[in-house]
């Protein structure tokens, strides 16, 4: 059987297959190939005419899982894992203090909205579990929506209320708080979806 690849070198195809195999073994849910994520270019949006990108920060358990969840979305251009929500200056993975493992999502609001990011947030973790997600238990795994202003705060509160109405038998434990400082995690924790 012959494989015909226009505009794609054989080494690129092999590299992609190796990456797919590795990620499948680690049970990752998507692969983003740089040439495939230039949605803004396909829409005719050029960097010199584009408005500034927006960012949102969420904590919903382990930051690696969070990175995988948001990293596959169209319109999400960059994911950085790190720490937020605490008082310790310059936290590190082995010394978080009172911070939560978090993910900073840089996105193009013409392709995805903060409201849509909130929908992904709610559907991607158990917002009723206190201080943890599944087997990951501890203060650093708590559920938080960090906001950058009044409108984000309002949208987060409305979405939390909507989530609470889904079940009156348990309380949504997700916190909503203004974003203080987001501290990027050490380089070895950045997977770069």
Record keyword descriptors for this entry:
193 residues; alpha+beta; two-stranded antiparallel ribbon; 8 strands; disordered N terminus
How would you describe this structure to a colleague?
- The protein is α+β, with helices and mostly antiparallel strands and 193 residues long.
- Helix content is 28%, strand content 20%.
- The chain is built from five helices and eight strands, in the order H-H-E-H-E-E-H-E-E-E-H-E-E.
- It has helices at residues 10-25, 39-42, 63-71, 114-123, 150-164, and strands at residues 54-60, 76-84, 100-107, 132-133, 136-137, 143-147, 175-178, 183-184.
- Strands 7-6-1-3-2-8 form a six-stranded mixed sheet, with helices on one face.
- Strand 4 (132-133) and strand 5 form a beta hairpin.
- Helix 4 (114-123) runs parallel beside helix 5.
- The longest helix is centred in the first third of the chain and has 16 residues, at 10-25.
- The protein is globular and about 40 Å long.
- The model is unreliable at 1-9, 16-29 and 31-44 (pLDDT under 50).
């Amino acid at each position: 059987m012959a494989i015909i690849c226009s505009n794609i070198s054989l080494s690129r195809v092999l590299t992609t297959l190796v990456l797919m195999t590795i990620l499948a073994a680690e049970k990752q849910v998507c692969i983003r190939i740089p040439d495939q994520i230039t949605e803004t270019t396909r829409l005719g949006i050029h960097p010199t005419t584009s408005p500034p990108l927006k960012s949102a920060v969420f904590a919903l358990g382990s930051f690696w899982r969070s990175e995988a969840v948001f990293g596959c979305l169209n319109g999400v251009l960059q994911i950085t894992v790190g720490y937020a929500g605490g008082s310790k200056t310059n936290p590190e993975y082995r010394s978080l203090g009172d911070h939560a493992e978090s993910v900073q999502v840089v996105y193009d609001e013409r392709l995805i909205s903060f409201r849509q990011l909130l929908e992904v947030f709610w559907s991607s973790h158990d917002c009723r579990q206190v201080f943890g997600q599944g087997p990951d238990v501890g203060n650093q795994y708590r559920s938080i929506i960090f906001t950058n202003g009044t409108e984000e705060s309002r949208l987060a509160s409305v979405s939390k209320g909507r989530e609470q109405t889904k079940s009156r038998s348990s309380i949504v434990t997700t916190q909503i708080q203004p974003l203080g400082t987001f501290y990027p995690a050490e380089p070895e924790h950045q997977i770069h979806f």
